[in-house]
Amino acid sequence: MTEESRNKIAHAGKLGYSFRRHLHERLIEALLFLSAILSIAIMLAIIVMLIKESFVFFQHVSIWEFITDTQWTPLFDDAHYGIMPLVSGTIVSSFIALVVALPLGTIIAIYLSEFAPFTVREMAKPFLELLGGVPTVVYGYFALLFVTPILQTIFPELPGFNLLSAGLVMGIMIIPYVSSMTEDAMRAVPMNLREGSYAMGATRFQTAIRVVMPAAFSGIAAAYILGISRAVGETMVVAIAAGMQPNLTWNPMEPAATITAYIVQVSLGDLPHGSIGYQTIFAAGLTLLLITLAFNIAGHILRKRYREVY
Amino acid sequence: MKSVNDLEEIRRIIGLHKRWDLIFMITGIVALMIAVLTFMALFAHMLVDGMPRLSWDFFTSFPSRRPESAGILSAWVGTTLVMLVTAIAAVPLGIGSGVYLEEYASKNLLTEIIEINVTNLAGVPSIIYGLLALGLFVYQLGFGQSILAAGLALALLILPVVIVATREAIRSIPVAIREGAYALGATKWQTVSDHLLPYSSAGILTGIIIGLARAIGETAPIITIGALTFIAFLPPSPVKSEFPYVSFEWLTAPFTVMPIQMFNWVSRPEEAFQLNAAAAGLVLVVMTLAMNGLAIYLRYRMRKNIKW
């Protein structure tokens, strides 16, 4: 055997298949896979847990009663289990929040993406991110002790707890989510579309409204849907500022409870495990999850579509 | 000449439309200002109400029935311990699954399901995580209404944030780095642990800080697992004087956290307690803003410094 071929064999031994090295790699890959699969386990655990407790609840209360009864008094002696008062509170507060957040968020996004000079954008984006990072309990405090008194000077008959101020503050809170996603969608629109529009003599505003927004439509719609989902699931602002009285009303000037506020209210009391009151929060939670999940999936589909265009 | 007139006409129309540009520009600035001013009002209101209460005693006293002597000692200690559990649980799991999805996963149905699922988890309302923790951790696994249950609930909540940050940080590393490592005979894990993770550490850190800042402010999931609002004692110390020097008793202790303490004070009718709420809110906002600011600064520096 020559020197050269002996060297070849020695190198092959080092570089070739090594069982220990292979095992080590496989083990790490398995660990990483387990942590990735955990997200599915969490989702399953959420669904199983909510359905399991709700199932016991729905053996006690018929689904029909749950949907059609107009009173929600599960902890009273004369118990009624109609989810409608909680749903109406949720819808009214979310609606007010969206009336604030969607137009303002969109205008800010158009301004930052199409109009603002570079430095303004660089300063406004982090600021909006900071705004989104403020704890929601602080926004609740702000709604109850700052916004409500101001509103009361305009509407003297406004009660201390009301859906209006909770909704308004929630809207301000959601602006950063809407504006940053909308802006991302609009900036993803290729430059040559804008250049074509400018070349035809269109102004910035015309370009933004007639070219960029339609092109970014599905991204903007996804941002709106996620905004809705966030308003529906928001808890502390409504729990603090809207009162916790289940109240079947469409009037924002009244106190009312949302689904989330009800869960907070019950959790604050000392509720025995396995009681009907304990199960109601899981039934309410399941309702909430179904609503937000539907919005999230719709948003996901829309976002996927706008990504595929460009 | 007609064409010159036409040009004038076109210029006139464009001028008219440019006025709309100006109007919208002003609208945009006003909209931005509404957001800015709201934040200023919020901060100023809390500062005026809360500042007089902020003293050394406020940080070192337990909550009390008398508002002037009440403090946030048990709240900030509880928050610190809960955050410790959250970080220890969420960081390795989040980075692990981010690395798997970005570097190991082949494009198949399972990967896609995991990816959709991570997006969906990010959109699940926080209070639902509280219900999960109440059912699973508090009762099923028997952790009780403890720091452990709260920390794990928040860890699940911020997991998507860490995963997404990890993926984005790793994705921005050029393929050439990986090819270089493989060309020298490195295994996949050697490539990941010696190159990809160190190079993306600033981005991952940004995600972790943003996640923890969010967890500090979360109230709903912790209320749901039944954390108490009045705690006038501290959990057992994690450090002991005799062997084995560390104790894990604090994991199962009852606790309260800053946002719950604030919520408790806000919901009392006496105005003196609401001043305490303002002070607690101020501490909370400064903490979360500092963390978010740090994350934004890190991201900014990262973008400036890295030139592949």
Features:
heterodimer; A: 310 residues; 13 helices; B: mainly alpha
Which stretches of chain B of 5+ consecutive residues score pLDDT under 50?
none
Distance between the termini of chain A: 61 Å
Morphology call of chain A: flat
Biggest beta sheet attributes of chain B: none
SS-based structural class of chain B? mainly alpha
Q: What is the 3D form of chain B?
A: flat
Order of H and E elements of chain A: HHHHHHHHHHHHH
Count of helices of chain B? 12
Task: Tell me the total number of β-strands of chain A.
Answer: 0
Rg over CA atoms of chain B: 26 Å
- Please report the number of helical segments of chain A: 13
**Helical content band of chain A:** over 70%
What is the assembly state of the chains in this entry?
A: heterodimer
Average of the residue pLDDT scores of chain A: 86
Can you describe this structure?
The complex is a heterodimer of chains A (310) and B (308). With 310 residues, chain A is mainly alpha-helical. Chain A has 13 helices and no strands. The longest helix of chain A has 42 residues, at 19-60. With 308 residues, chain B is mainly α. In chain B, 74% of the residues lie in helices and 0% in strands. Chains A and B meet through helix 2, helix 4, helix 5, helix 6 and helix 7 of A and helix 1, helix 3, helix 4, helix 5 and helix 6 of B.
